[in-house]
Design a protein that fits this description.
With 245 residues, this protein is an alpha+beta fold. It contains seven helices and nine strands; from the N terminus they run H-E-H-H-E-E-E-E-E-H-E-H-H-E-H-E. The longest helix is centred in the N-terminal third of the chain and has 15 residues. About 7% of the residues have low confidence. InterPro entries: Ac_transferase_dom_sf, Ketoacyl_synth_C, PKS_assoc, PKS_Beta-ketoAc_synthase_dom, PKS_NRPS_Biosynth_Enz, Thiolase-like.
């Protein structure tokens, strides 16, 4: 694969060519490996950030790469000074080979004189938050005012109030000068990085001041308990592709 890349698209190339693998991040997917590669490539083209290869330390000594062929080891901005193209190559166990070339929608629209919606990011000002264009030739704008959902849960009804008090104590040390992605990170952490417990309440806010106000006891939604309609059951899935069950 490396020799084929160097002999074709890597030959006499002036700009850096980045080579990566989705397997380093998610492991073997058997029949779905090609689809995972396409998903990674689409997100890379759209977001304008080339993801790193996980745990890469040194190159196989049997592979010689020229200086312009890189293996990313950290998130790398992908400039938008021309079409973004990604090539996905997937080998099947029995010798099948599938190849897909993707190009960003914005360049396609521009080259063909078309207008349309797309999700292509402008050159990232910083890797934690790219600017997104909603239309071709539009200006990317980061909108901090978008409402966000903040979820609080507990094992008992009174525990919700206690957790809200702790959250309010934490927010008391924050201010409007906090980094602009503070609310987004907080909403993400509360909804996906905390244990999901049966008693829940929530607040919706688009600013730090609004969040503090909506978390006040008089504004907070009444805690509700979620309950399953049936006992959980165990299921086994067999891939049918050999001994890898």
């Amino acid at each position: 694969e490396a020799k084929a890349i160097l002999a074709t698209i890597g030959h006499k190339r002036t700009k850096d060519l980045y080579v990566g693998s989705v397997k380093t991040n998610i492991g073997h997917l058997e029949g779905a490996a090609g689809v995972a590669g396409v998903i990674k490539a689409v997100l890379t083209v759209e977001r304008g950030v080339i993801p790193p290869n996980l745990w890469f330390e040194k190159l196989n000594p049997q592979i010689t790469l020229p200086e312009n062929v890189k293996i990313p080891i950290e998130p790398t901005p992908w400039s938008f000074d021309g079409p973004r193209r990604a090539s996905i190559n997937s080998f099947g166990f029995g010798g099948a080979n599938a190849h897909v070339v993707l190009e960003d929608a914005a360049s396609y629209f521009s080259r063909n004189g078309l207008n349309g919606k797309h999700s292509i990011a402008s050159p990232p000002q910083r890797l934690t938050n790219g600017h997104v264009n909603g239309f071709t030739n539009g200006n990317g704008v980061h909108n901090d005012a978008k409402p966000k959902l903040f979820v609080v849960s507990s094992n008992d009804k009174e525990g919700v109030s206690r957790n809200v008090e702790r959250l309010n104590s934490y927010l008391a040390f924050a201010n409007s000068r906090s980094k602009h992605d503070f609310l987004g990170n907080l909403a993400y952490t509360l909804s996906t990085k905390r244990s999901v417990l049966p008693w829940k309440s929530f607040a919706i806010a688009s600013s730090l001041e609004q969040l503090k106000s909506n978390l006040a006891p008089s504004s907070l939604s009444t805690p509700l308990r979620s309950s399953s309609t049936s006992d959980p059951r165990l299921a086994f899935v067999f891939t049918g592709q050999g001994a890898q069950w």
